[in-house]
């Protein structure tokens, strides 16, 4: 699939592709794992990896102009898809938690812990990747023929996807903005929600990591 075609994939199509492949992996994983949770985790990892890979393929190859074109496309399912991905990510984190604590500490299998840790890491990446697209979509949205923007980036160049990724992942790691100013109520609300989700998510990651280490060596 060429980059031009990827640029024109709608958010709902992107989601569907990831879901279909994840379901296929779930059924094929029956040959590798007996446990339901391990199979679900492998399919969740697949979903996260495909969602993230397609997004970052577009991010890495997009100029500011291409970012504008891609992010400003009126896709009615974009906001719904964003919410589905965020909710699904928290469901994935719950599955990670169950996988890591479902057995006695001394009997945990390395493969289960590795699946859980990988699922946790990819869930974190997916959340902030999804917010990257959301920030770009809101920034390059229009109202009465004018760009909505809402973020002020240093320098004179228009931002591309990597600039929005920088904003998103800084919030994801520090729960605050860096050198980018927020100038609209809509962006402030989105950033507030993102910061709160990041705080909860990172707290869960610390707790699950401690649980995993205790399970392996306890």
Automatic annotation (TrEMBL):
- Coiled-coil positions: none
Q: Which domain of life is it from?
A: Bacteria
InterPro entries from the entry? DUF1345
Q: Where are the transmembrane segments?
A: 15-33, 40-59, 79-101, 113-131, 196-217
Keywords carried by this UniProt record: Membrane, Transmembrane, Transmembrane helix
Q: Which Pfam families match?
A: DUF1345
The protein in question is named DUF1345 domain-containing protein
